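step=encode ok
step=design start
structure_in=
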């Protein structure tokens, strides 16, 4: 079962990686072709391509960082809510048990 879950996670990760690469390549290619079509020198085309790739990398890093932060906060909130629910159930169980005499439990 654990192997199937791991395989599914790897498949999803590879899919995300391929989609991200495709998206990044297409946007960079569009920029480079647009700049090249303007008839500027090759060094300008290369500089535009590298600037676009750098900006994309910084953007993805910031997005990933923020996404992980939100994910951790969501997990923390869920765990806190679960702990509160468990405490409430424990208190309710204690009250019910206290109402009965030891012979009835």
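sequence_out=
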């Amino acid at each position: 079962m654990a192997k199937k879950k791991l395989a599914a996670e790897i498949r999803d990760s590879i899919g995300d990686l391929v989609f991200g690469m495709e998206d990044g390549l297409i946007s960079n290619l569009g920029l480079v072709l647009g700049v090249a079509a303007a008839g500027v020198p090759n060094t300008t085309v290369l500089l535009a391509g590298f600037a676009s790739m750098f900006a994309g990398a910084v953007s993805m890093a910031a997005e990933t960082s923020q996404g992980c932060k939100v994910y951790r906060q969501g997990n923390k909130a869920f765990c806190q809510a679960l702990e509160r629910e468990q405490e409430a159930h424990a208190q309710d169980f204690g009250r019910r048990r206290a109402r009965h005499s030891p012979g009835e439990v």
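step=design ok
step=annotate ok -> The first helix runs from residue 2 to 37.
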